[in-house]
Specification:
The chain has helices at about 30-45, 75-85, 105-115, 130-135, 145-165, 220-230, 240-250, 280-290, 295-305, 345-360, 365-370, 380-390, 410-415, 420-425, 435-440, 445-455; strands at about 5-10, 50, 60, 65, 90-95, 120-125, 170-175, 180, 185-190, 195-200, 210-215, 230-235, 265-275, 330-335, 375-380, 400. With about 450 residues, it is of the alpha/beta class.
């Protein structure tokens, strides 16, 4: 039985708790040279794509800017378009919100990026849950959870209608090298309860037909949306036990939509620490986790779970002795709180307090242990083993690496782990195609349509 090929991508971490700002090797998260260095290193490692998150407002808590947001976050499309000019094969994936944007604009931007990059664009379709972000936009407010995914589905359907309004044969060259188009090229009409748009889409069919579609939601509605519409899932289940459960659950949903097992890739985000020995890597990983969860970050997270401000709280001491306050979140603005990861706030608090008591940990140390992302930790051989185990045991189809150092954090993995995977025959030694769909083994949508029509 042949072994599965491993897909590897890189997440430019931006402003989140994987970043260790205090490390002397840490660089800017807003200067273009950081993005260029990061992308070119990923391409040197023959990665499938670079993934860039999006933030639409600085996060706040207790009236202060969240401590990881102090550098802001530049526009996703601008960065990806610039990176298209300094890379040749690396896919370019961006998170763009479906709650506060419009289908025509987003479809046009992604189609343009796909042309500029010769077929390397991908869209991570996300929704926004909070009124705080909505204040930046004309509509303001926020959507109920049931409407968020309904609008996202409609949004993607509308964008697909726009992309499909051109066919490959709508654009041809004549003897004078002038373009001739059919009279209905780009014509579209889309109407439902969310959108009422009609006109002509002014970007011809792109090299991939459509950008690759990613989805990152973990709720039941999010999993269903991914099974119906997405090409890949940006998952948070990076360990073997939870990964196999998530993988099996999402893959089983595909048949309902007439899709095959291999038409949806599952790619969890994972951190990594590589040392000369497993023991050395474990020691470094412990120090990195503590650096990722500063006293300020840990306090903000604990306030989110307890649902009250804790102005005099010492994160290097014990947890609050009282239980979390029930009800709507009163302290978290513009950030998905810990409560969103589990509805039982008291249960999580009891679990954290139990870990702290059993292991003699402070509140900050416990938070760093309890909610840090799943990671690959060990010598180069051990990390290669861990990654291969995830993929061969159907816990993932690959991973999206989130280094704790930007922009040079990918180098140890590229230099020390990639050659081992290549020697084992589970990872490419060079790019075989030019588009992101080819890197990921995904069919061009026009060919899928032709095959379905023939059957």
């Amino acid at each position: 039985m042949s072994r599965k090929q491993i897909h590897i991508a890189a997440h430019f971490p931006g402003v989140n708790n994987t970043t260790v700002w205090s490390d002397p090797a840490a660089g800017s998260h807003i200067e273009f040279d950081s993005f260029r260095t990061f992308a070119q290193e990923a391409e040197r490692g023959k990665f499938d794509f670079l993934f860039l998150a999006e933030g639409l407002r600085l996060r706040e808590q207790n009236g202060e800017i969240y401590d990881l947001d102090v550098v802001g976050r530049p526009d996703t499309f601008t960065i990806l378009a610039a990176l298209a000019a300094v890379t040749d094969r690396l896919g370019l994936a961006g998170t763009i919100n479906s709650t506060f944007n419009e289908p025509y604009e987003v479809a046009r931007q992604f189609a343009s990026l796909d042309h500029l990059s010769a077929g390397r664009a991908a869209w991570n379709v996300v929704t926004s849950w909070d009124e705080f972000t909505g204040e930046n936009f004309r509509r303001g407010g926020f959507l109920a959870e049931s409407d968020r995914y309904a609008r996202a589905e409609s949004f993607l359907s509308a964008a697909t209608t726009l992309w499909d309004s051109w066919n490959d044969d709508d654009l041809t060259d004549d003897a004078s090298d002038e373009f001739l188009t059919r009279g209905d090229a780009g014509a579209y009409s889309y109407r439902d309860r969310f959108f009422d748009i009609e006109g002509r889409f002014n970007v011809p069919r792109s090299p991939q037909g459509r950008p690759v579609i990613f989805q990152a939601g973990d709720s039941d509605a999010g999993r269903e949306f991914a099974a119906a519409e997405a090409d890949a899932i940006f998952s948070r289940h990076g360990d073997l036990e939870n990964g196999t459960k998530f993988y099996a659950d999402v893959k089983r949903r595909l048949a309902k939509y007439g899709r095959r097992h291999d038409e949806l890739l599952i790619l969890p985000a994972v951190t990594f620490i590589i040392g000369d020995t497993d023991a050395e890597a474990a020691d470094v990983a412990h120090e990195v986790r503590l650096a990722q969860f500063s006293a300020a970050t840990a306090t903000r997270l604990i306030e989110q779970l307890w649902n009250v401000p804790l102005p005099d709280f010492d994160a290097d001491g014990p947890f609050p002795t009282f239980d979390p306050v029930e009800g709507e979140s009163t302290v978290s603005k513009g950030r998905a709180s810990v409560r969103m990861l589990g509805r039982d706030a008291k249960g999580i608090a009891d679990q954290w307090r139990g870990i702290a008591a059993a292991q003699g940990l402070s509140a900050r140390e416990t938070v760093a242990t309890a909610i840090a992302r799943g990671g690959l930790v060990g010598s180069p051989e051990t990390v290669a083993d861990q990654l291969d185990e995830l993929v061969q045991n159907d816990a993932a189809d690959g991973v999206i690496l989130a280094p704790h150092i930007t922009p040079g954090g990918l180098t140890p993995f590229v230099d020390r782990v990639v050659p081992i995977l290549q020697e084992r025959g589970v990872y490419r030694t060079d790019y075989e195609g030019s588009t992101l769909r080819e890197h990921l083994g995904l069919a061009h949508p026009d060919r899928v349509a032709t095959q379905e029509a023939a059957s």
